[in-house]
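Let us work through a complete example step by step.
Step 1: write down the sequence.
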Amino acid sequence: MAAAGGPRDRVDILMDQVPGHSEAESTAKALALRLRRVAHRLETELRRELAAFGIELWELELLATLKRAGPPYRLSAGALLDSMRVTSGGVTKRVAGLERRGWVRRETDPADRRQILVGLTDTGLRRVREVLGTKTGTETRLLSALSPATQQRLNDDLRRLLVSLEGAAD
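Step 2: predict the structure and record it as tokens.
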């Protein structure tokens, strides 16, 4: 498979080693490999950057989910479950870990005593605000090889792919 408009990467070398696919199959396989490699590199670099803050990527994702909820920075356990796409046991375990660190607290919903709300503490809110800037800076730096227009086009194409795989968001 030839590299279009630039130097060859490791995926090009790998694809040379797996002949016998149609052009459509080779293109899909190369794209899947590149997507996985880029996602792995992004996650590895983000983990490295966040380690300096003593925070794991999953911890930041949960804290950021609560921050995006807006004041008072609380969500039901069910809303966290939907947003984070992990099992209920996974959410419970993650919340418990963040609660031990003093970054979140669980409280009974005053409107429905059967419901548990998870909310950011003041310490958790300060922490997520402090670390999100670093995460954003790392993402921007790592993707800067692509022009803003290319990033937007890639965003649009990947959104279309995700909608076809996961369905449209609510």
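Step 3: interpret the result. The beta strands are 74-76, 104-109, 112-120.
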